[in-house]
Amino acid sequence: MKTNITVVMFSQVFPPEKGGNASRIGDLYKYLTKFGVKVIVVSAVETYPFGTFPRESRLIKKEGDIIRLFTYQPIKKDASSIERVLYYTIFPVLANIWLVFNRKHSDVILITSPPPQMYVVALIGKLLRKKVIVDIRDLFLDVSVSLGFIKRGSIVERVFRFLESKALQTANAVTLVTPKIRRQLVEEYGIDPTKCYVVPNGVDLETFKCEKSKRKPQMVYTGYFGHAQDFDTFLEGYALVEEKDRIPLILAGSGENLKETLKKAEKLGLSKWVSYIGMLSRKEVVNLLCSSTIGVAPIKADESLKYAIPSKIYEYLACGLPFIGVGVGEIERIAEESKVGCVGRTPEEIAECIRKLLNSNFEKLRVQALRYVKRFSRESSAKRFIKVLQKVHGGDNNEKHEN
């Protein structure tokens, strides 16, 4: 699959930073490089999760094909709104400057959103007559408005909507992680559906795999504790399960709502059942999943989040774990398709999901999970992305394709 294309990927986050966004772009870089694509990554200095990396004063830092540009680095995990704005704005501004001075170094540029400030990089790329691919990981604006972080109808929302609309309409191709995001953006902005390609989120099956391991009877959550996660509903459902039928819940990760989650567990009398073990490396996450029984994926049952499939679900499946989810929409679909998930919207439904899975045949669920997740490997996603690159680079954007 050797190709002579050079692509510059602009991303706010990149490993060793943590989170689904960083792992997606990190694995894409890994496999594109493996398949012979020349890739230059332009990212912000290591910052996320906030407060976990040393402060960086250099304007630019190069590590081979990885270029890190300065941005504001919040010191505290619970960064203020102003700190977040600085973090998400300074890097895109410097990325635009870098692009202008290095415009001869690329055949195709890829920008990945969120944050929506990255759309300016895509528009500058078009002004420089570059082939541009916009990668949409989630509906950031819709969620931010629905959860109250951006005021509906405000100047901020209107500016971001304008940038998103122009970037998507002028891009040579748009890649999206789910068909629902594709349909929604086509309807909302009138973009050409033939240039929209679904490249699913997924999991690196080379990393997330279990050798022979002894599993403990425990549920596990690894990831971000943010405003889109609905731990209240999950914990309330967990509390409805009689103690004789419970298994422990292990939490790992970080986020602004972590303290509230632990306080909620204490308030519900679950302290002896819920353990928080801190931030983990990717290897430690794999070890934890391979020694657990059930994965947990709570997403708010909000209309703006119906498109969402948490990346951790693919990690659970790759490690042979069935999962319990909170939410509506795509998370319900993947539970039904895989036949190894149970999703509820109320505490009562969550309690029933816990009881149901605990009475299931875990070996059968493990086999089904591994069989299902094979179609979502990050390697196969990279191969699909290379096809998009080749069409864009060759100017063939109107060829019909499957999604």
Automatic annotation (TrEMBL):
Kindly give the InterPro entries that the UniProt entry links to this protein: Glyco_trans_1, Glyco_trans_4-like_N
Organism of provenance:
Palaeococcus pacificus DY20341
Record's keyword terms, sorted? Transferase
All residue ranges annotated as the Glycosyltransferase subfamily 4-like N-terminal domain in the record: 19-206
- The UniProt record lists the keyword Transferase: yes
Pfam families from the UniProt entry? Glyco_transf_4, Glycos_transf_1
Q: What GO MF terms are annotated?
A: glycosyltransferase activity
UniProt-recorded name of the protein: Glycosyltransferase subfamily 4-like N-terminal domain-containing protein
Using the record's annotation, list all stretches that form the Glycosyl transferase family domain.
208-368
Is rRNA-binding included in the keywords of this UniProt record? Answer: no
